[in-house]
Amino acid sequence: MHRTRFYTLSASCPDRVGIVARVSGFIAGHGGWILETALHAEPARADGAAGGGEAVGRYFMRIEIRADSLPFHLAEFRERFRPLADELEMEWKITDSAVKKRVVLLVSKQEHCLYDLLARWQSKELDIEIPCVISNHDSLRGFVEWHGIPFHHVPVGADNKAAAYAEVQRIFEEVRGDTMVLARYMQVLSPALCAAYPGRILNIHHSFLPSFVGAKPYHQAWAKGVKLIGATCHYVTAELDQGPIIEQDVIRIDHSDAVEDMVRYGKDIEKTVLARGLRYHLEDRVLVHGNKTIVFR
Amino acid sequence: MHRTRFYTLSASCPDRVGIVARVSGFIAGHGGWILETALHAEPARADGAAGGGEAVGRYFMRIEIRADSLPFHLAEFRERFRPLADELEMEWKITDSAVKKRVVLLVSKQEHCLYDLLARWQSKELDIEIPCVISNHDSLRGFVEWHGIPFHHVPVGADNKAAAYAEVQRIFEEVRGDTMVLARYMQVLSPALCAAYPGRILNIHHSFLPSFVGAKPYHQAWAKGVKLIGATCHYVTAELDQGPIIEQDVIRIDHSDAVEDMVRYGKDIEKTVLARGLRYHLEDRVLVHGNKTIVFR
Amino acid sequence: MHRTRFYTLSASCPDRVGIVARVSGFIAGHGGWILETALHAEPARADGAAGGGEAVGRYFMRIEIRADSLPFHLAEFRERFRPLADELEMEWKITDSAVKKRVVLLVSKQEHCLYDLLARWQSKELDIEIPCVISNHDSLRGFVEWHGIPFHHVPVGADNKAAAYAEVQRIFEEVRGDTMVLARYMQVLSPALCAAYPGRILNIHHSFLPSFVGAKPYHQAWAKGVKLIGATCHYVTAELDQGPIIEQDVIRIDHSDAVEDMVRYGKDIEKTVLARGLRYHLEDRVLVHGNKTIVFR
Amino acid sequence: MHRTRFYTLSASCPDRVGIVARVSGFIAGHGGWILETALHAEPARADGAAGGGEAVGRYFMRIEIRADSLPFHLAEFRERFRPLADELEMEWKITDSAVKKRVVLLVSKQEHCLYDLLARWQSKELDIEIPCVISNHDSLRGFVEWHGIPFHHVPVGADNKAAAYAEVQRIFEEVRGDTMVLARYMQVLSPALCAAYPGRILNIHHSFLPSFVGAKPYHQAWAKGVKLIGATCHYVTAELDQGPIIEQDVIRIDHSDAVEDMVRYGKDIEKTVLARGLRYHLEDRVLVHGNKTIVFR
User: Catalytic site residues (chains A, B, C, D) (predicted)?
Assistant: First the structure.
């Protein structure tokens, strides 16, 4: 993170000669001072590797530019950059570090991820707005409200799921949320809600995916006798625990650890992995490519 | 590892009051000096966790005793200990650090695990006999023979599998092998061979099991977009890549790593994980419990 | 952790034949059901390794016994066990899982360790009493008091150190504290306070000791160009950052990480390492041996 | 690694607007296809952090270009690029993936790093020439020569150091070595030899520097009671174990590990860390900046 205001351009396009030259030439042509650049060429694969083969490679980039080095603001940047982006067939966006992202947290009863995220928000490590917290239980209301953050209790039962998720979506829209974070929210979102915000809903799953999808992953891990347990931060898609993976980590266990110990160890990696994944997302470091991600750490 | 000769007693039995007192009392009663003790009670589980529930807990132990502190040798130890072991319904064995284990290596064309194991054997880090190496290719013969170790080329084709594995078994028996190590042996052993040596054949699988069973796990990992790749050392059973896990580890990768990079990173954890798992096995630190292991590191 | 009430016996004594037999025999003789046992023999070292050589080895043990399996309570256990302990020249203690430890937290302005510990206390992962929090600043009062925990502001200036630490000690005594935790408390305790509670004050230092003792360790690490940064939980002694190490961990950084990034990464390991070290301490898993620790994880 | 031939341009220069645009514009102007780009701006630091403060920032870059996409070879590239490089006040070089680096290994009696590096060379994971191995002992001659690599025994005694290192330098020059690797070479090179090849001699030190400089670092680590041990790959300078750090890693130990166990664990990280550091160096991923390194992994 830089202390001066900056813009972040993130983009991808079909690979070809001269992309970097054209884009960096555009920026330099206006006197733009580049703070950080990350580039990645995903090669065309002729070898038929499962799930990734494409006829043409794809180029990904993320560039941070000092705001005060450019002679215009974002609206004009967008207008001037568009012809080049169109020519390169880019998907792109540019964001402003001075505009805080609005992150809505969804929680259930477990508090470890919530405490962790609010500590990071309180200390400004996460420089975001949290317009509200939504929960299917009421138990964490006091803690959230003490921080001056509105709390919405939206119960989810077997017979009101559609209505409940419609209410979640209504609140998210009302507070103009950018990102939704399932911080150990123990409910499966409706397909409609997943589809409404592709690449904008993050979940923390308490296993090293693709192992142990679904419910009670620590019980599954215990029964299998694995020697490491993990956690996975991923984008939510309609298919349960199958969305693009943003970040993962593991911790060593052994035969003496019961399921309850694994749950306890797991919490420590859950909160760390979620916080790292969320940071990458908020800083526009994550570019989705099919069912995978490019993460410019 | 201790420099003085010692015996290693490893055992398990139904849990009850007084096991440690009885066993350590027996040892102390003969003046036995204990160098290292590891104990584990696997509780009876009433909560129906998959794969582990039992009505009575089970107790596991591993005790190292200085050989020169006892007034008799192993044969007499076994005779005197048997009544107690029977009373406690123990499965048990006792081994002598002065008797080197005889380890047969099976390899294919890849050399990284072979070089690694022979370096450890050469430096006496692995204090074992390697009576021979068996391979389905002839390419590593020179390297093995330079070390003074016999090399057997046993080709495995689509139409001679039964005969080939019978030959592997014949050689293993002939050299009086204790343990068989599949050091990136790229063939699936026959069920008969697996069944002949339960808990005596170790494999290194190039993924973090249970993810990515079977062929080309790095390709599978690449296609899934995981952020860590792993390796697993496990006992071989008739069911492919499903035997009890002894040791695992992982390494971080990112979007810039192609399958070939993952293969390269993977080799480093494969050889480390195999060497660790093999050491635990050779030092009688691994006790199998159903489809899981107790590993007294 | 077990759900049933249990006693934890932790002890050390000069090594000799029969220690385990005598102690486990005593327990079994009263019908005691052992839940967990950990043993360690620290050998006498004749090779003159710095800092550890002793003429006779020392034996360490930690045993958990189900409270309801014994026919008497702790007072009587202590009385009956004493003759054996005396004979073996033991240093020992036995604690009761039903008696919560009383942990006093000392903090300054940084909140990450405080949030983390209170989350663990709130969820009963840490099953302790927190009779109060003491700080040299007043900024975290509201957060602490919201949890129903008394907060004491004890300013520490250049000219009132002796008085300030006397006040800290007075409060600690008044609330009958068992353990004092410096949860990123940015002051150096007085030698008198350190000496008053040997093995009872835990600190989290933000480097991988023995590297980067003292102030601004992340700046030191940045200047040195290390590729991993760490954190260390240790007992506080009069010599700054030199007390027995309980737990350590590290995280990977690279050239793109500025000091501020290292501070951010570091917080994640600080809180995890402190929480792990504190748990080991509270569960009587840490036995001090000279300037080192035995940690029965 | 790419399978097609490519050139690697690595460079650094004072930071200013337009560096990337100028350099990538030059490459694109000749039709150059960029395979991989890594960039880093080391900011000017006004805050007086020890060891790094500079009045102007410095820009680092590493660019891989497909050889067959350019209309000329390296000699002409160098000639055409020089004016731009001069204008930007660059330190720079460009290398050709088709020209194998010539790496001379120095070893003593321990074989683990030697076996590891030769396995990587044998499998072409390290695509280098090893024109010879030099040792102060004769014991590894047979193993090296079996691989078809010349072996030079250059004894180093208390009274012939100057002559011995002169001989090492003579051999290195004679075989036209690019890089010298101290693969657990248990001698301290002469200042003259260190000064002759700045940034071209790599050492693996068996501790997590800056902790435990000099002899017997595992004994030092044991005496201190650290909970992790490490290894460090660094460039050799005249000051012992103080050269720029390229790569580090650690492994967890505990109280039950004696010095000999730490030595054994340590070997595994020594060889992995050395192999990683060497790979980064050989692929021109390491740019030295004062006493630190930029490593474009």
Answer: 241
